[in-house]
Amino acid sequence: MNIVVMNCNTTASMTEAMASTARSVAAPGTVIIGMQPNWGPDSAEGYFDSYLTAAAVLDRMTQLPDDVDAVVMAGFGEHGREGARELLTVPVVDVTEAGAHLALMLGHRYGVVTTLRRAIAQISDSLTTANLLGGCAAIDAADLGVLEIEEDVEATRKAMLVAAHRVIERGAEVIVLGCAGMVGLREYLEEELPVPVIDSIEAATKLAESLVGLGLSTSKYLTYAAPRTKKRPGWPISPSQ
Amino acid sequence: MNIVVMNCNTTASMTEAMASTARSVAAPGTVIIGMQPNWGPDSAEGYFDSYLTAAAVLDRMTQLPDDVDAVVMAGFGEHGREGARELLTVPVVDVTEAGAHLALMLGHRYGVVTTLRRAIAQISDSLTTANLLGGCAAIDAADLGVLEIEEDVEATRKAMLVAAHRVIERGAEVIVLGCAGMVGLREYLEEELPVPVIDSIEAATKLAESLVGLGLSTSKYLTYAAPRTKKRPGWPISPSQ
Amino acid sequence: MNIVVMNCNTTASMTEAMASTARSVAAPGTVIIGMQPNWGPDSAEGYFDSYLTAAAVLDRMTQLPDDVDAVVMAGFGEHGREGARELLTVPVVDVTEAGAHLALMLGHRYGVVTTLRRAIAQISDSLTTANLLGGCAAIDAADLGVLEIEEDVEATRKAMLVAAHRVIERGAEVIVLGCAGMVGLREYLEEELPVPVIDSIEAATKLAESLVGLGLSTSKYLTYAAPRTKKRPGWPISPSQ
Amino acid sequence: MNIVVMNCNTTASMTEAMASTARSVAAPGTVIIGMQPNWGPDSAEGYFDSYLTAAAVLDRMTQLPDDVDAVVMAGFGEHGREGARELLTVPVVDVTEAGAHLALMLGHRYGVVTTLRRAIAQISDSLTTANLLGGCAAIDAADLGVLEIEEDVEATRKAMLVAAHRVIERGAEVIVLGCAGMVGLREYLEEELPVPVIDSIEAATKLAESLVGLGLSTSKYLTYAAPRTKKRPGWPISPSQ
Amino acid sequence: MNIVVMNCNTTASMTEAMASTARSVAAPGTVIIGMQPNWGPDSAEGYFDSYLTAAAVLDRMTQLPDDVDAVVMAGFGEHGREGARELLTVPVVDVTEAGAHLALMLGHRYGVVTTLRRAIAQISDSLTTANLLGGCAAIDAADLGVLEIEEDVEATRKAMLVAAHRVIERGAEVIVLGCAGMVGLREYLEEELPVPVIDSIEAATKLAESLVGLGLSTSKYLTYAAPRTKKRPGWPISPSQ
Amino acid sequence: MNIVVMNCNTTASMTEAMASTARSVAAPGTVIIGMQPNWGPDSAEGYFDSYLTAAAVLDRMTQLPDDVDAVVMAGFGEHGREGARELLTVPVVDVTEAGAHLALMLGHRYGVVTTLRRAIAQISDSLTTANLLGGCAAIDAADLGVLEIEEDVEATRKAMLVAAHRVIERGAEVIVLGCAGMVGLREYLEEELPVPVIDSIEAATKLAESLVGLGLSTSKYLTYAAPRTKKRPGWPISPSQ
């Protein structure tokens, strides 16, 4: 089984970290293919970048290998999943949803911990339209400055821990990590916290395997039917291959 | 990996059918163990029987093999999952939840089709407390008499098909089967319907494998902490083994 | 009029305290009959015990006196009420609902105060499926250790008072006591608090009298129709009388 | 115990019919006092008349007898209950709420049947702010012309029956009558329908007795504290007595 | 275009302040006519006064000039708007709604700041029935004593600022002022706060102009159809002019 | 005042029709500037095209004239508004929101009528994240084939009328047109229907004027703060001007 893990930004090291995380939990026989857009922000924080990544990811999806069995969209809280469900015939698993699905089976309510406060509203919107906000006790952020997050892994981990304690205080009994590519974060938090911690890419990888294993894919009945054939001048952005 | 598929009623043929369904989708290396309560109704329709099965299933859970890795609770819409999450340390997947989780990734809204109209309210309650009713367009029933369902497989299939069309009409783009042990029903409906059809036991089996594969289990932090040690005269009902 | 007050646990002193509370508010001519299950936990905290008590209470309900006019289910937040509504033809009043019903007529929003934090989720579920969570500002717990609650009445009262102040702070203008059998607690809290305090067994007793007085009982139309006649090996648990 | 049944309109025959209904279910020792506003519409249908009756009822409440123990506000879906809760120290039971409270204990979901379609939105608003819409499957109306309702009792009954069947079809298992003063309507519908039928004035009378019996009254803590002393030129409308 | 700004209380200086605020933002050619009821409270805080003002405002609305194009109802959180929509054929804009409408376009969630804590529930009800509570992060109050608010403008401003900071802390990114007639408050808060501040009368004035400009007015289809012709003894309260 | 009306697709005739509609209701002194993306679909139906238009519109927004006072985003149900709110400092009005805002002031509940059934889910998502779905009775579609809609204006009008009747039947008392660029559609429907009909571009134009007139713009406090400065290889798509 071939699963594409599609990073939403253009930073190759993050793409590789995501693919590596997926590989670490994939079943024997599952091949993980890391991919990233050909253009767009090198990281996504906020709606503006999120909408850019949505189009960039859809653009890149016109270049998927032929034998892909499922796609994991690896941008926590980012837009685009419904468009991918229209475009593709293989199942599409969004990491934002994946963490929540597993969390709901492990605790009465779950919480999300992310890096920047400005992303809270966007994650809330994404869980809302996925019909998964109901069991979410809180979404909170480490709230470090961006530079600190990028440069000081230790400070980031500690800030994530503090935010996790806040969402537990607000009723969460499971933590979903709302970020990607921080190696070892799940392990660190699991050691420090009294609750399970879910890495969203790990979750999405297993859910993608599950759907493929059951022969299930996106409903093409109405909402996610294939896009109409029409003129789209200038699209795709990337040259066809 | 050893997964117990726990039927909620005392009909051995249904237990076997459920285990067989689980086996048909299990990964290589996954051993499916069919189990059923030692007492209680031979089928469950309605809250009264549902509460009986909850206690009977919890009673039976005191007799699980030592090396179980996860439990699938195979009573659609039936009570008890939160009690099992307290009692056990391995992950517990309820088929009611499992179908909904996968469905939400395949269509904008899903619908549930069950056999008897009186079960609709109970399924709605179960999805509500699981925080999964939000994406449910409709729950509907074949609404045959009980005898017809038990004796006339063909009539039941057709009635399920009619009910499925009704929930599609009401907005569902994916169908979750709210019953168990009807061999071949998913295949029949998939052929007749323009939308994906999810067998809940299949879904639960893959989700159980996913949780075990990720090393995740129930949060024991607060709500699902182990039951207190106390006097429970007359309990367990079944003699200890 | 004969009203059974059904304790959900097997502790006779609590059954008697509950019946006594009900008697203290019953109308002239109302006879209160305290009953308790023949088996099960001596107190119920958490879902596991709650599901045990549901079955144990339903088991005991097969032994109701013939001339009962209504049943009060006296386990705050415990399961089973819908099963009782199927089984019986007389009206069934759950204390969890009863307190909320009266509270909604007395203040803009109400709060629930219970003894143990682990029960909060379960009470929330019970109010949710009863369609009564909407007006609930908060559910909070005294959060003493179990031993303290059982052995130190004074500490428990004070902890309940502190929790009550917290739910008032969160918007409650009426307090519903989410526990039973603590003699004098309502009076103590009413003296200390600026808001009305509702004892749920008192509330349920008057609501049961009201339904009987109006000739109203459970709808047997669909959801709460009598349980089907079928085989239930090993049931009832208690020998028939 | 003295309970005022306050009609919201100025039609004496309706006031008497309402008081008579209340008396028919009152406990021995309960005295029912029918009252009505000194001014305002002779019937209330729609928000405009509803707001008039709210002020007219509050105006009339300045003239309550000294020894009143509770007030039933007998205008289904009409405004004013929260104002009465501020003004008075005795408990206030609104018939709109009362029917819903009892209905929620008798069936999984209830429905409301009223006379005119234009009142549906207003009843929905009233149940919404009372936090009781959650369990309401449908509100529907007989939808006769006003003249027909006033002049042709038989046609009205039949139209109410048709509307009741519609709300049952939409999921109601209990019917709350959203009108007052139609003698014999509950009995007629109960005979024709497979579900319990609740007369709201009957319900409110028993709930008022319940609150008084338990020594409970409106929370004066914040929202329903007594109105501030201030200048209100031209108020009360009615000359003081 | 002629717009009536209808104060809900009988204090002429507030009526003038409101009209003046409206005039300060009105388009060239828009004439603002300040009006107030002929009777009723000189300020409205709480449901009792709110219901009085609803009737008093409706009473006054029978005396509108013939050439009015729209009415702004200038009582934040006060009742009556739906009655006015029945009574009048010109569009009616309630200031409670108006602030929320604009706020929702400026930030992810908004908050309301009002003067007295007892009004919070009432504002919440008003936004709920207007279907606008969904985007409201918090409603909070300055919580000064009434005397302080009336006599000490500076203390009031500071208390409003503190309350605004609390609602921002709870997630609001736009502030709606839930009071009227405090000259200069919007400017003061805008200077002190990092978020936009909306004066509800200003908002309502522009929305009224917008509706008139588009030739839109209240739907008379069903709910807001004109009040029935009927007997309303004693109404209108004010002598006809 | 200069308002950009930004069409989301690349069809110049639709851009012109939208600008013309906006001009027809703009205040004296308001200059309407029609704009459209430099690339992307020539019409947008479905999530895939919607996400493309979001990025294409944001791309085009880097080329706005300097003296723009507000932007109307003229793609009903399309994505991107929150990104535009981050990118720009002037107010952004989405036509999807605009129609709903005005509709809520005109009737108890509103309905949306659009052209294609597949867009219903997407419009529902857009109203949900805008916190405006609460008052929406129904969203329905004309459900003609695409060719029919494009080629047969008369058939489209009639199909829109039929859909409008359906949403009225489901409780709508105001109709919001969920499409753009069909000249004369509002007038046609207003003549045929008993309820007000809102053209979303007209509504958005007046709301944009209102915000500018009040000196209000997007909150830059947290969620809609300006996008971070970072590397975005390949962006903007369009050559800078």
Describe this structure in words.
- The structure is a homohexamer of 241-residue chains.
- Chain A has helices at 12-25, 47-61, 81-87, 95-104, 120-129, 146-151, 153-169, 185-192, 200-213; strands spanning 2-7, 31-35, 70-74, 92-94, 110-114, 136-141, 174-177, 197-199.
- Chain A has a 4-stranded parallel β-sheet, sandwiched between helices. The first copy, chain A, has a 4-stranded parallel β-sheet with strand order 6-5-7-8, sandwiched between helices.
- The radius of gyration of chain A is 17 Å and the shape is globular.
- The first copy, chain A, has 241 residues and is of the alpha/beta class.
- The interface between C and D is large, with 47 and 48 residues.
- Chains A, B, C, D, E, F: This is Allantoin racemase.
- Chains A, B, C, D, E, F: InterPro entries: Asp/Glu/hydantoin_racemase, Asp/Glu_race, Hydantoin_racemase-like, Iso_Racemase_Enz_sf.
Question: Multimeric state of these chains?
Answer: homohexamer
Tertiary shape of chain A: globular
Radius of gyration of chain A: 17 Å
CATH architecture of the largest domain in chain A: 3-Layer(aba) Sandwich
Secondary-structure element order of chain A, N to C = EHEHEHEHEHEHHEHEH
Distinct helical segment count of chain A: 9
- Which runs of chain A of at least 5 residues are low in confidence (pLDDT < 50)? none
Tell me the β content of chain A.
15-25%
| Overall CATH class of the largest domain in chain A | Alpha Beta
CATH topology of the largest domain in chain A: Rossmann fold
Helicity level of chain A:
40-55%
